[in-house]
Amino acid sequence: MTNSKLPFPFFSCTLMRAPGGRLLKDSIEILVAFVRDAEHEMLAVATSLQAQIDLIEKEQSESVDSAARFPALNRAVSRLVSDATILTSVSELTLLPRVKTRQNVETMMRDIATETRSKFANSEVYICCNIAPSIHVYGRTEAFKLMFKETVLALLLECEKLETIRISAKVVNKNVCLSFDTGTKDKLQKFEPWRLGKLRLHPINGEGISLAAIDAVARLNSGRLSVKSLPNRRHEYRLSFAA
After folding, report:
1. What whole-number distance in Å separates Cα of residue 201 and Cα of residue 128?
2. I need a labelling partner for 165 at 20 to 30 A (CA). Which of 65, 155, 181, 205 fits?
3. Whole-angstrom distance, CA of residue 178 vs CA of residue 11
4. Element (DSSP H or E) covering residue 236
């Protein structure tokens, strides 16, 4: 059993099945729902961006300094770029042939830790992983890495300095279940399934389409993303996969 603290990320997950018949129909429905979320998100950001540009044009015509609006513009552009990158990644994954290659979860998480090192370098946030070396998943490495990485980064956005992101993995009745939190363990709130295709209804909407992408890729791999919303606007995440 590995139980370590690192100043950058770690994780765990399971299976991909070749679509056919009903599975093919399900896959198409999943992708349509995800595209609906991406459309809503990117349109919302573009609308906000246009509003800021209109205000800058008005201020310039009145000889008013608009420098204070540039940080908001930069955030909007960065969010659009991030959303487009995630959308491209999910699109590319759907074009790849399905495989059932055995993947070691701990090894994949060490790779992700290296890839995201720069994002954690100045955060003073730690990762505590509790993943048995025997836990494996079956499918394409790219799919699992996308889910793992985006979930860790979503949690990192909410972290304060010196906090610890805790990731655990367990196998229950041949299902792989991964939990992501900062040690809050709030028992009063419940995990709710992510409502793919209904991003506009999610109160935590505001950080792009990463959670929608995680759930879409999870569903394509016989899994689901669940989210627990805490009173302090923090969250816990859970990824579960059927064997």
Report:
1. 32
2. 205
3. 7
4. strand 235-241
**φ/ψ (deg, to 5) at 105:** -65, -45
Specify which residues 6 forms β-bridges with: 127
pLDDT in tens, 73-106: 888 888 889 899 999 999 888 888 877 888 888 8
Q: Is 2 helix (H, G, I), strand (E, B) or coil?
A: strand
- What domains sit in the chain, N to C, each tagged with a CATH number? 1-243 (3.30.565.10)
Nearest to 105 by CA among 144, 143, 142, 140: 144
- Which residue(s) pair with 129 in the sheet? 4, 167
Q: How far apart are CA 166 and CA 4, in angstroms?
A: 10
pTM: 0.81
Rounded to a whole number of angstroms, the distance between the first and last alpha carbons of the chain is 21
pLDDT at 4: 45
What gap in Å lies between CA 152 and CA 148, rounded to an integer? 6
Question: Which residues are CB-contacts of 53 (< 8 A; sequence separation ≥ 6)?
Answer: 73
